[in-house]
């Protein structure tokens, strides 16, 4: 559901055409997106366009894709059909509420060829991209494969003209260069590349540990206020569940609980997706429980991520650590 943020950011900025490039196993994501109705992208003209690389790749006699630049080359016919003069490239693993309309205006005023959105929190992101910026915002250099973070990390959000995007895709396809960030690095002396520094919350989910740590940050009121602001609403697929229920002996504190949950036990400092059941005597602490997880009587969970429809049987005790939260596979019985 991290893709909800990318789609909402685009729609809030007035984007009417959104193409989503799929790679690998994408059944769950495809089911989540549907026709795009939840994001006001179900339209007769434009709207949500699904771009499965596997389908395009069969025409090119290959099914493995090495990087974003290559993926853009594969969907080159779609790029030619874009009706707008400017495009925004985003990754689907970014959790942030960005003012993309303001970013586009800044891009146009600056006269830059490409504007890259970056954060300045010094956070380390697995396989992340980092920028060296001049005082005026010009990108001086691009770094990746780092062991330590730099001040400005790329949020992998780029604004540029459609014409320039097509030019870059065609140019680097001929050179068999498949990496977008490597292409950007090669262009830094030829093009005017500028950074737009975002000071708000921005999480990039590249590993289980990052997912766990960033999700736990959502329990902080300041982070939630930054992500879910009234002027830029985050749209999502509705759960269609009744209100959550906490029984007379149930206790819930410091947690986020979705609709449809039934809590008869104890829940502390945790995140519960729709339809989670916590039976009497069960205790959940510092954990994330996905849709329709069932925790039976007397079970105890600490620092656990449970995928959809997991069932934890009576009196089981399961614990991970902050550095390595324990993950329970989808529909497993423990």
Map the helices and strands.
Layout: H1 3-12, E1 17-22, H2 27-33, E2 47-52, H3 53-59, H4 68-74, H5 76-81, E3 86-89, E4 94-96, H6 100-110, E5 114-119, E6 129-133, E7 139-144, E8 152-161, H7 162-174, H8 180-187, E9 193-198, E10 202-204, H9 208-217, H10 221-227, E11 245-246, E12 251-253, E13 256-257, E14 262-263, E15 266-268, E16 271-272, E17 277-278, E18 283-285, E19 288-289, E20 294-295, E21 300-302, E22 304-306, E23 311-312, E24 317-319, E25 326-328
Helix pairs in contact: 4-7
Description:
The chain is α/β, with parallel strands linked by helices. The chain is built from 10 helices and 25 strands. The protein has helices at about 5-10, 25-35, 55-60, 70-75, 75-80, 100-110, 160-175, 180-185, 210-215, 220-225, and strands spanning about 15-20, 45-50, 85-90, 95, 115-120, 130-135, 140-145, 150-160, 195-200, 200-205, 245, 250-255, 255, 260-265, 265-270, 270, 275-280, 285, 290, 295, 300, 305, 310, 315-320, 325-330. Strands 3, 5, 6, 7, 8 and 9 form a 6-stranded mixed β-sheet that branches. Helix 4 (about 70-75) crosses helix 7 (about 160-175). The chain starts with a helix and ends in a 6-residue tail after the last strand. About 30% of the residues are buried. The mean pLDDT is about 90.
What are the key terms here?
6-stranded mixed β-sheet, alpha/beta
Number of strands: 25
Q: With helices defined by DSSP (H or I, 4 residues minimum), what is the helix count?
A: 10
Instruction: Tell me what portion of residues adopts beta-strand conformation.
Output: 25-35%
| Unreliable stretches covering 5 or more consecutive residues | none
Principal-axes geometry comes out as elongated
